[in-house]
Design a protein that fits this description.
mainly alpha; 186 residues; two-stranded antiparallel ribbon
């Protein structure tokens, strides 16, 4: 049914798109892998877009009091989450955790200083390693080890969990960016 054939009109006032949005539109159809990876990539690109054009000193700004969240903190957190889920748990690689220790578990959000450009580069590198691991794994049912339980965890489950993680933090990034310079858009 097209828009002209509808008895009830379609909404005319949709949320505005981000000005100059370079993201590839999300597919409306596709196989499971195509849809899962496209959604995860779209959310990754959204995080990058929300950081683009923000001066480095403003990336670390905690602009939504009383929260300690900042765009730089989100980048640090998401770099650590990418490594934890894809490389350490699914890929079973013996790597150090990023921006976390038992002595200082909030190094991602609650740190003093840090180089925003280096943190952005670290996040981009972890995303690249995650993409490589997914591309090299033909079966979404392939498993790694969920370290908290010792149980198998499938690539499908990791992708779904990461989509949820990014969706949550893209909402945070929307608020943080709007508070920094007023920029809005989906």
């Amino acid at each position: 049914m097209s828009g002209e054939e509808r008895e009830n009109p379609l909404p005319q006032h949709l949320a505005p798109k981000w000005e100059g949005d370079p993201r590839t539109p999300l597919p409306l159809v596709g196989d499971e892998r195509e849809l899962l990876t496209a959604y995860l990539e779209w959310y990754r690109e959204t995080v990058a877009l929300k950081c683009e054009g923000v001066p480095p000193e403003r990336l670390r700004e905690q602009s939504v009091a009383p929260s300690a969240l900042s765009l730089q903190g989100l980048l640090r957190h998401l770099a650590g989450v990418e490594r934890w889920w894809f490389r350490i748990q699914f890929g079973e690689q013996d790597l150090p955790l990023l921006f976390y220790s038992d002595e200082d578990p909030d190094q991602d959000f609650e740190w003093e200083g840090g180089d925003p450009a280096a943190d952005l580069a670290t996040w981009r590198e972890e995303c690249a390693r995650s993409r490589e691991l997914v591309a090299a794994t033909p079966d979404l049912d392939a498993t790694g080890t969920h370290l908290a339980s010792g149980q198998p965890v499938s690539l499908r489950r990791v992708l779904i969990g990461m989509i949820a993680e990014y969706a949550q933090h893209c909402g945070h990034a929307d608020l943080l960016r709007e508070r920094i310079d007023g920029a809005t858009g989906r």
